């Protein structure tokens, strides 16, 4: 105001105001989707004022107006040979894409997220509006209300959490919880995050990051991430589970960092929220349910077209070996011009053994977390009583800390 400038900060990046939801919930963020929806109600209408042009910038005083920097000025060098993601930026494209998705009314009203095909890449199974929502090219309220318009024109339609509006509510759910949770983006000091003694193994982590695990389904997804910056939600599930509680037992924060850097829809609240979820660190706790890096993708794409597209070295591998090329006889590998261990890596872990070990370690970590939460509530569990009788007054915290320390030095 001192400079004669009125500052107005509306909340419009999300459907709801996270602070308002938290306040309606007694000062704490609702930690389940259902409780979030119960509090949230209907979102406000989008602002429908249209501007034909931006107002003039006005007097910028001593500041110089600079043009938009070029790709080279941003430090990317020559990108002419690189595969560019097939998604164009901008509001016009966002609105076009949204209209294209919504004009198929039957698709909209029958939308059920868990039923989508994660391997569909020529025509993705979902809207691919996340990058536009992230950059503000599309208003989530406008999108929400356009979907409601479609619903109004029919009798039956799917409902949250699986419906299309349900997806936008997931977005707001994670925004609200992340806004109200200190240290939401880390394990330590994050009250809603299970303390899990993740392993450190740089070699395995790099193999996952670079799409060289030897599991074609996992590698194709990681290569799509690198080339397109976008993958289907269930594809993200597969690779996040594989890195953390499913196979490699590596910290979700490491996977989060890779996604944060490479996703074109990279969003702090949603990315961290989903990594917490997939690693069974928060929100979801059925750690025994592990995605198979072989059979899960095969269900949707038995011929492995998705793999053949993103991993061309496997393009001539016969259908029966495309998800497990290491099982192909050498003569077949030779014929497909892809020798496993030379042209394409051998699996970095044996899924059966690794997933069994992960379940065991998750079970142990969960037991310690239960112990910790019981003792912080002042209700010692049997296990903590036993530990305390051995003279350890602070059994829970120190045992978790010790476990963390041991695993770090593995
Ligand atoms: P649609 O199914 O068409 O959904 C419409 C919109 O709803 C999306 O654009 C998105 O804004 C929102 N939405 C959908 N699913 C979710 C969800 N599970 N959580 C929150 N919002 C959702 N999404 C991001 O936008 N940014 C991220 O950084 C991100 N990181 C993720 C990390 C992991 C490990 C996982 C498992 C998921 C992540 N997601 C992230 C959520 C989800 O995968 C994407 O939002 C979705 O795949 C985007 O595609 P779409 O626009 O076609 O989705």
TrEMBL record:
<feature type="compositionally biased region" description="Polar residues">
    <location>
        <begin position="371"/>
        <end position="383"/>
    </location>
</feature>
<feature type="domain" description="Cryptochrome/DNA photolyase FAD-binding">
    <location>
        <begin position="166"/>
        <end position="363"/>
    </location>
</feature>
<dbReference type="InterPro" id="IPR036134">
    <property type="entry name" value="Crypto/Photolyase_FAD-like_sf"/>
</dbReference>
<dbReference type="GO" id="GO:0071949">
    <property type="term" value="F:FAD binding"/>
</dbReference>
<dbReference type="InterPro" id="IPR002081">
    <property type="entry name" value="Cryptochrome/DNA_photolyase_1"/>
</dbReference>
<feature type="binding site">
    <location>
        <begin position="265"/>
        <end position="267"/>
    </location>
    <ligand>
        <name>FAD</name>
    </ligand>
</feature>
<dbReference type="GO" id="GO:0003677">
    <property type="term" value="F:DNA binding"/>
</dbReference>
<keyword id="KW-0547">Nucleotide-binding</keyword>
<protein>
    <recommendedName>
        <fullName>(6-4)DNA photolyase</fullName>
        <ecNumber>4.1.99.13</ecNumber>
    </recommendedName>
</protein>
<dbReference type="InterPro" id="IPR005101">
    <property type="entry name" value="Cryptochr/Photolyase_FAD-bd"/>
</dbReference>
<dbReference type="GO" id="GO:0003914">
    <property type="term" value="F:DNA (6-4) photolyase activity"/>
</dbReference>
<feature type="site" description="Electron transfer via tryptophanyl radical">
    <location>
        <position position="252"/>
    </location>
</feature>
<dbReference type="GO" id="GO:0005634">
    <property type="term" value="C:nucleus"/>
</dbReference>
<dbReference type="Pfam" id="PF03441">
    <property type="entry name" value="FAD_binding_7"/>
</dbReference>
<feature type="site" description="Electron transfer via tryptophanyl radical">
    <location>
        <position position="198"/>
    </location>
</feature>
<feature type="binding site">
    <location>
        <begin position="126"/>
        <end position="130"/>
    </location>
    <ligand>
        <name>FAD</name>
    </ligand>
</feature>
<dbReference type="GO" id="GO:0005737">
    <property type="term" value="C:cytoplasm"/>
</dbReference>
<feature type="site" description="Electron transfer via tryptophanyl radical">
    <location>
        <position position="275"/>
    </location>
</feature>
<dbReference type="GO" id="GO:0043153">
    <property type="term" value="P:entrainment of circadian clock by photoperiod"/>
</dbReference>
<keyword id="KW-0274">FAD</keyword>
<dbReference type="GO" id="GO:0003904">
    <property type="term" value="F:deoxyribodipyrimidine photo-lyase activity"/>
</dbReference>
<feature type="region of interest" description="Disordered">
    <location>
        <begin position="369"/>
        <end position="410"/>
    </location>
</feature>
<keyword id="KW-0285">Flavoprotein</keyword>
<dbReference type="GO" id="GO:0032922">
    <property type="term" value="P:circadian regulation of gene expression"/>
</dbReference>
<comment type="similarity">
    <text>Belongs to the DNA photolyase class-1 family.</text>
</comment>
<feature type="binding site">
    <location>
        <begin position="167"/>
        <end position="174"/>
    </location>
    <ligand>
        <name>FAD</name>
    </ligand>
</feature>
């Amino acid at each position: 105001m001192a400079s004669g400038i009125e500052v107005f900060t509306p909340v419009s990046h999300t459907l709801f105001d996270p602070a308002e939801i938290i306040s309606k919930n007694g000062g704490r963020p609702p930690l389940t989707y259902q409780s979030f929806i119960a509090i949230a109600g209907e979102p406000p209408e989008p602002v429908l004022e249209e501007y034909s042009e931006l107002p003039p910038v006005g007097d910028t005083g001593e500041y110089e107006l600079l043009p938009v920097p070029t790709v080279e000025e941003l430090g990317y060098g020559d990108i002419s040979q690189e595969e560019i993601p097939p998604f164009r930026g901008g509001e016009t494209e966002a609105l076009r894409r949204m209209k294209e998705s919504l004009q198929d009314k039957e698709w909209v009203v029958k939308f059920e997220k868990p039923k989508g095909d994660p391997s569909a890449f020529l025509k993705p199974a979902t809207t691919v509006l996340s990058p536009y929502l992230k950059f503000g090219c599309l208003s989530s309220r406008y999108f929400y209300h356009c979907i409601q318009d479609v619903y109004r024109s029919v009798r039956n339609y799917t409902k949250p959490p699986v419906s299309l509006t349900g997806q936008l509510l997931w977005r707001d759910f994670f925004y609200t919880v992340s806004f109200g949770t200190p240290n939401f983006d880390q394990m330590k000091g994050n009250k809603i995050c299970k303390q899990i003694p993740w392993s450190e193994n740089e070699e395995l982590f790099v193999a996952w990051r670079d799409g060289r695990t030897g599991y074609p389904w996992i590698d194709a997804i990681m290569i799509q991430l690198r080339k397109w910056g976008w993958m289907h939600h269930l594809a993200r599930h597969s690779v996040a589970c594989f890195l953390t509680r499913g196979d490699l037992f590596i910290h979700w924060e490491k996977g989060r960092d890779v996604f944060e850097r490479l996703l074109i829809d990279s969003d702090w609240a949603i990315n961290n929220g989903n990594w917490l979820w997939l690693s069974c660190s928060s929100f979801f706790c059925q750690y025994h349910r592990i995605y198979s890096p072989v059979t899960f993708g095969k269900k949707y794409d038995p011929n492995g077209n998705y793999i053949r597209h993103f991993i061309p070295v496997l393009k001539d591998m016969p259908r029966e070996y495309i998800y497990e090329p290491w099982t192909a006889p050498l003569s077949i590998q030779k014929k497909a011009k892809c020798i496993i261990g030379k042209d394409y890596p051998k699996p970095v872990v044996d899924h059966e053994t690794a997933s069994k070990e992960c379940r065991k370690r998750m079970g142990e970590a969960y037991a310690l977390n239960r112990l910790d939460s019981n003792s912080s509530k002042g209700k010692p569990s049997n296990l903590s009583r036993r530990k305390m009788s051995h003279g350890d007054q602070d059994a829970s915290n120190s045992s978790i800390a010790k476990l963390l320390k041991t695993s770090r030095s593995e």
